[in-house]
Design a protein that fits this description.
The structure is a single chain. By secondary structure, this protein is mainly alpha-helical. It has one domain. 70% of the residues lie in helices and 0% in strands. Helix 2 runs parallel beside helix 4 and helix 3 packs antiparallel against helix 4. The longest helix has 35 residues. The protein is elongated, with a radius of gyration of 23 Å. The C terminus is likely disordered.
Length: 156
């Protein structure tokens, strides 16, 4: 995993530099610089808009008593998109804009959920105060069970 990260952090900047130099060769240096600046500003504005929209959807799902699993994944993808868009470069801008578009973000979200679904574990615990008595009217005793039903019920 560390090797992949090091490879990513060295290959992506080299590819970005090559693309920027080629773009500057085709349209001129100042025009290429303007494109990088405009996509950075536009990307930050779009990421803020999508992030706020996602935040409202999370609040609505919580208010409705549902777990906002998909929306939380969307929020992370929007955060990644914003970081990619403020990073100068052509390739990172393309990937960032793709993550901001809801249909492509949905595809990426489903791929991530499918990849990590088997790796997630849910643990539950019970904590009872030392003053707990079975006849206390303020205490409700119950149990929680985990079902392996559809992912829609689970909120992811």
């Amino acid at each position: 995993m560390l090797f992949r990260l090091i490879l990513l952090l060295t290959i992506v900047p080299i590819v970005e530099l090559a693309l920027l130099l080629k773009l500057a060769e085709w349209i001129g240096g100042w025009s290429a610089l303007a494109i990088v600046l405009v996509t950075g500003v536009l990307g930050a504005v779009l990421a803020k808009y999508e992030g706020l929209r996602c935040f409202v959807q999370i609040q609505q799902e919580l208010a409705g008593g549902r777990l906002p699993g998909k929306r939380l994944v969307d929020a992370v993808l929007i955060l990644v998109a914003g970081a990619l868009l403020v990073t100068p470069g052509v390739l990172t801008d393309v990937v960032g804009f793709c993550l901001l578009i809801p249909p492509t973000r949905s595809v990426v979200r489903q791929l991530l959920i499918r990849r990590f679904k088997g790796r997630l574990q849910v643990f539950t615990t019970s904590i009872r105060p030392s003053s707990y008595t079975e006849d206390d009217p303020n205490v409700v005793d119950g149990s929680v069970s985990q079902s392996t039903g559809s992912t829609e019920k689970d909120g992811v």
